[in-house]
Amino acid sequence: MISQRLSRRTLVASALALGACSGRAQTPEAATVAVPPLKTAAPFPVGAAISVGGLEDLAYQSVLLANFNQITADWEMKMEQILQPDGTFSFAKADMIAAFAAQHGLRLHGHNLIWYIYKPAPFAALAGDKAAFTKAYANYIQAVAGRYKGQAVGWDVVNEPVAEDGDGYRDCLWRQVLGMDYVAVALTEARRADPNAVLFINDYNLESNPKKRATFLRLIEDLLKRGVPLDGLGTQTHLEVDQQPGAVKTAIRELAATGLKIHVSEFDVTLQRHPLMSRADKLQAEARLAGETAEALSALPAIQRYAFTQWGVRDKDSWLRHPPNAGDGTDAPLLIDDDGLPKAAAAAFVRGVGAKI
Ligand code: G3I
Questions:
Q1: What does 100-142 look like in DSSP terms, one character per residue?
Q2: What is the number of other CB atoms lying within 10 angstroms of the CB of residue 165?
Q3: Sign for the pseudo-dihedral over CA of 238, 29, 290, 271
Q4: Hey, which residues does 72 pair with through a beta bridge?
Q5: Best mutation site among 55, 72, 74, 97 for ligand 1, i.e. most ligand atoms within 8 A of its Cβ?
Q6: What's this model's pTM, rounded to 2 decimal places?
Q7: How much of the chain is in helix, strand and coil states, percent to nearest 5?
Q8: For ligand 1, atom 12: residue with the closest CA
Q9: Residue 43: in which H helix or E strand, if any?
Q10: Active-site positions?
Q11: 57: phi > 0 → left, psi -120 to 50 → alpha, else beta; which?
Q12: pLDDT digit string (tens) for 169-204?
């Protein structure tokens, strides 16, 4: 019995030792096959949402630089960080993100200029004076998009304009003062600020909510018909593990039918909820969805494949692992696990873009 126990203990110890030697942490969710760096496998840029705080961790930087060639600021380039209560602009953190991109030769995707959730005091104070409001609105867009002219390859100019249920458009400060023209005005000012930036409208649940996708596309068609400057569509692709197979492909195909560039802009698959599914089944669903998304983007003409961006670097960096969205703190929504190792979802993504592993 001892010898049996010994041999089992020896076996486990040697496996762990082997794992340690190979530098591969024995995390339960790392892929069981060798997965090449994501950016080398895909025929389009592969991005991650990053934060200034994350960059302070060298392990985070190492995983980021190994796998990704595009970055989006999780927070630092948004109005909530840039526009101060006194109406001045603070670019310190946004500049750190831009500097990191320049230092490492990474594409920088700007996110975002106008978002329905913001009702900042400097703008709210002008709500009764449309001319002054419009001037301040244009000035903000010019100041931000102009500052990163030649650095940001593209911008989410307007984020999430469609109502949650897809029934019409969001009510927001911008729309209350400018009407739905707030979208066209923002795009026009962004084009003026940086003529070479790829201008996007970005939204979520476009795969899971066909009604929302139809409303989104009606807005896009109207803007294009009016000759409003618009170059791309961001489909955030925040998915649930019970997402119907094929829905992501259908959404990307319909969005691409506009002829605009497509950015899978915030990919993640939350494992939260769905208590009847085992974690293993959820991870399998996550991998299936990563593969479907990769195939759908790869199937587009090269000129329409803007990028695939996951919303975070490692699972533990995800917004879904931090309050108020953290749930029980065990979510694993990304292609890269807590230890920086590629998961089954990463292997499925690499296969989905047509690379051999
Ligand atoms: O880091 C500061 C901290 O120093 C400060 O004390 C604290 C005070 O509130 O704020 C902290 O910043 C927070 C930031 O995340 C970094 O953690 C902001 O409050 C918080 O608003 C911000 O949340 C971000 C959220 O957008 C709102 O900007 C999330 O990280 C970010 O993942 C999330 O991303 C959005 C996309 O932009 C649009 N699509 C949905 C996606 C998920 O909600």
A1: HHHHHT-EEEEEEEEETT---HHHHTTTT-HHHHHHHHHHHHH
A2: 11
A3: negative
A4: 49, 109
A5: 74
A6: 0.92
A7: 45, 20, 40
A8: 75
A9: none
A10: 160, 286
A11: beta
A12: 999 999 999 999 999 999 999 999 999 999 999 999
